[in-house]
Amino acid sequence: MENKFKIYNTLTKQVETIKPNEDGKIAMYTCGPTVYHFAHIGNLRSYIMEDVLEKSLRFVGYDVKRVMNITDVGHLSSDADTGEDKMLKGAKREHKTVMEVAKFYTDAFFADCAKLNIKTPDVVEPATNCIDEFINMITVLLEKGYAYQAGGNVYFDTSKLNDYYVFSSQSEKELLVGVRDDVEEDTNKRNKNDFVLWFTKSKFEDQALKWDSPWGVGYPGWHIECSCISMKHLGEYMDIHCGGVDNIFPHHTNEIAQSESYLGHKWCNYWFHVHHLNDKSGKMSKSKGDFLTVSLLEEKGYNPLVYRMFCLQSHYRKPLEFSYEVLDQMVKTYDKLARKTRSLKNDGEVDKQVYDAFRLKFEDALCNDVNTSMAITVLYDLLKADTNDATKRKLVEDFDQVLSLGLLSAADEKASEQETNGADNELTAYVEEMIAKRAQAKKEKDFAKADAIRNELLEKGIAIKDTREGVVWERV
Ligand SMILES: [Zn+2]
């Protein structure tokens, strides 16, 4: 297929047309959450924009396979292997085991994602599932001379690479300026930015999760998991690796170092990084004010999809400033947009020419480095355009496959509510019985029967539609 999708590639520091390793297919990887706490809406900004990237690629015709890890071991509170173990900290705080904490916050993460209409990646793999893969990669790195053992731990030797600092576009000296004086230095490291591949000498005597390894009982470092989990599911060549900008150094820099040393060739071609969500004081942090979660927004009466729209109105490569004032403004914008789509009638024929033209405009916005605010402008232009409702409705439905703002499901719910209120009870009972029969047929994988029921209803002037919230129906 024709490649026309452009993104900014952190590796080359320019906007580039994506040329996948395999024609028409995209192998994509996302760094998943460390499941020791609820996700902050700032982290979720990254997941929203990565979701839009994935859906945009699908929209223009790519067959995307996306993999995400769940960090349930090995991530210390500083990304540079210092500080407390995040999972252990969570377990202590909540008087639970590490695995209980991991389960609870993994579920909470996906519940938040569902509320934000973020699709679950095709493969989700917890780090604790892949200990053998980690051990295998570390063994090879030691054999090839890229790693060394010191003080009971295994470290990656960054001095073995000429271009270790290229990705972060910072020099070793600049990076060292950022290292805090109060962080205890690990004297086992030969070079300041060497990182742990395997810990056996944990400074946490009560480290909960440990495994046997050729280097003693211990646990993996954080960076190794993404290299191994991506290769396990996507092979030796990857097209797009995603994350937040704070992952560029050290996490992604270290992923590249160990993956390419292990493979002996280039690993991932395009790196996609989403910028921070800030508040007025600068970077958002847990210590300042509210710890902003999806649940907190809901408690305050906000629809999570309003937050999604807020993120889409801005470009992923720009810092985004959060405040309740701007969110309140976004509520009005979202409601107005939803009202407009809600009022679209399902009448007439789709005008093919208008349909194709708008679809192309929308695709162009997405292909232009995921320009979501431009894509939303195309949606507004469509709603103002001189064409019939059926055409507009079909396009809104298509656009929402990427935007995922729930615009038409809101419309359908409303329509079916109104229709149901007006319909006589007998009809409602009949339709509901048929919907139940169809659900049963689908459950039994009798899709022919399910389709027959749908058609039978259609003949009686009842259209049914599957939405995330369930089956809705309306008279047509
Ligand atoms: Zn990662």
In short:
The protein has 476 residues and is α/β, with parallel strands linked by helices.
Topology:
Elements: E1 6-9, E2 14-17, E3 25-30, H1 41-59, E4 63-70, H2 86-94, H3 98-115, E5 123-126, H4 131-143, E6 147-150, E7 153-156, H5 172-177, E8 195-199, E9 219-220, H6 223-234, E10 238-244, H7 248-263, E11 268-274, E12 277-279, E13 282-283, H8 294-299, H9 304-312, E14 320-321, H10 324-342, H11 352-367, H12 372-384, H13 389-403, H14 407-422, H15 425-443, H16 447-459, E15 462-467, E16 470-475
Parallel strand pairs: 3-4, 3-10, 4-5, 10-11, 12-14
Antiparallel strand pairs: 1-2, 6-7, 7-8, 8-9, 12-13, 15-16
Helix pairs in contact: 2-3, 4-6, 6-7, 9-10, 10-14, 11-12, 11-13, 12-13, 15-16
The structure holds zinc ion.
Residues 31, 226, 251 line the site of zinc ion.
Structure notes:
- It is a single chain.
- The protein is an alpha/beta fold and 476 residues long.
- It folds into three domains: 269 residues, 3-Layer(aba) Sandwich (Rossmann fold), CATH 3.40.50; 125 residues, Four Helix Bundle (Hemerythrin (Met), subunit A), CATH 1.20.120; 53 residues, no CATH class.
- The strands form five sheets. Strands 5-4-3-10-11 form a five-stranded parallel beta sheet, sandwiched between helices. Strands 6-7-8-9 form a four-stranded antiparallel beta sheet.
- About 2% of the residues have low confidence.
- Bound molecules: zinc ion.
Shape: globular
Bound molecules: zinc ion
Q: Portion of residues in helices?
A: 40-55%
- CATH homology group of the largest domain: HUPs
CATH architectural designation of the largest domain: 3-Layer(aba) Sandwich
Rg over CA atoms? 25 Å
Strand content: 15-25%
As residue ranges, the low-confidence spans are 414-423
How many DSSP H or I helices?
A: 16
**CATH fold-level name of the largest domain:** Rossmann fold
Termini separation? 38 Å
Largest beta-sheet characterization: 5 strands, parallel
CATH top level label of the largest domain: Alpha Beta
Average pLDDT number: 88
> What is the domain total for the residues?
3
Label the structural class: alpha/beta
Number of strands: 16
Strand order of the largest sheet: 5-4-3-10-11
